[in-house]
Amino acid sequence: MAHVAQEKWSSGTAFLLAAIGSAVGLGNIYRFPYVVGENGGGAFVLLYLGIVIVFGIPLVMTELTIGRRKQVPPITAYTQLSDGKKSQPFWKFVGFSSVLTPLGILGFYFVIAGWTLNYVYSIITGKLSNLVEGQTQQVFADLTSSPGTLIFWMTLSLAITAFIISRGIKAGLEKAVNILMPMLFLILVLLVIYSAFNGGMAETFEFMFTPDFDKINMKTLLEATGQAFFSLSLGSATMLVYGSYLPKDTSIPKLACGVAFADTFVALIAGFAIFPIIFANGLELDSGPNLVFVTLPVIFDQMPFGQVFGILFFLLLAFAAITSTISLFEPAVSNLEERGIFSRKKASLVVGTGLWCLAALSALSMNVLSDVRLLTFNDTVADKNFMDLLEYMSANGMMLVNALFAAIFLGYIVHRKDALEELGLGDSLLFKFWRGIIKVVVPIVIGYLLIDFLGYGFI
Ligand code: PFF
């Protein structure tokens, strides 16, 4: 098989920007605030921070290490690192499953990314002006019930992503994050300042940082872990691939901490952009898509300079989404290109076409196919339409499975020396601590979460 040499990031900073771009996405700005709202605020935030430190950072280090050790795409990395082991075919399969998972995520992520682009357009063209809450509800319902509109905006988000990917690492991914990430941070800061002047900052502080420990139970633990994994882009081959482009002279532990810190910081800051204006307007903390797509537009419509900040807010979401979709698209393209099956451009086209079909089915499952149920034999999923099922299987199920196997692989299968050299921590206490986490703590906790996922949980 003709293996094609991989491009590399031009520096550790370039990697950092791209990896933060991957981590910071709809998960931080669209999902984190409403999950915090649903789970009672401060206690959930505290739990989330604990999970990021205890499992999140060690797992990001694990996936970057597997990727960078041989500097090859995920399937090849798993195959080469298990060379000579009887279990090699199984690990090859784990590599394969890691590459498929982000495609499943993109199947619904592109649709939501499309909503954000549609909202930028709708505010600019005045479709979201002079409305009250019931009417914004109607605007959102009109969008989700219109197959043509949904597919149009989904296709746009997919086409932008595929175009960036087709240009390669330096001319495509690096260039995109160099432009989008600074804009993203700038918009976020502007929005927080705007919120500070117009909203209930004191209530937000109280809500986010006063923990009510009665609110913590097994369910919140599961919710927080799932959210942390999704937000840190774990279990989806993204960190494996981004790690494989990482120059050898950069420090994986430092970069992993940088990514986790920035990702968590942005999630918290997103709370400070959104909650104050909601509290100040005496509105309910809506759950699910309603918080961002129904409640916020009403507020932006009524506040001074609201139209400008409304556009900025949805642009922020769109930028965050696109720097994540490119990281979800890259693993499959990287594998096809390395194996010499397709050129990068052709691979982007082929993967893009497949994904378009998947995302179109998701879009249709909100309207014309809304009654179709695929898995009716299992109670947990029986009532989910195609898009919800895709999200549940990829973001809740497969991500956990892949992250679990990555930890077991590096902890038990790959030679200790490989991790020791790659992490550059020496045979220190820190290194032993990291290994203990991935060999013991991660398997126990993810194992438990998976039991719950399969519907046999104790909660
Ligand atoms: N971390 C992204 C977010 O918070 O929206 C989503 C994501 C990107 C998940 C890349 C997984 C991944 F591999």
What does this protein look like?
The chain is built from 18 helices and no strands. The protein has 459 residues and is mainly alpha-helical. It has a single domain (12-453), classed as Hydantoin permease, CATH 1.10.4160. Helix 1 runs parallel beside helix 12, helix 5 packs across helix 15 and helix 8 packs antiparallel against helix 14 (306-338). The longest helix has 37 residues, at 88-124. The chain is globular, with a radius of gyration of 21 Å. 49% of the residues are buried. The model has no long low-confidence stretch (mean pLDDT 92). The structure holds 4-fluoro-L-phenylalanine. The site of 4-fluoro-L-phenylalanine has 16 residues, from helix 1, helix 2, helix 5, helix 10 and helix 14.
Q: Output the radius of gyration.
A: 21 Å
Task: Could you tell me the CATH topology label.
Answer: Hydantoin permease
Structural class: mainly alpha
Order of helices and strands, N to C? HHHHHHHHHHHHHHHHHH
Secondary structure: number of strands: 0
Work out the helix count. Answer: 18
Mean pLDDT value: 92
CATH class: Mainly Alpha
Separation, N- and C-terminal Cα atoms: 49 Å
- Beta-strand percentage? under 5%
The global form is globular
> What count of domains describes the coordinates?
1
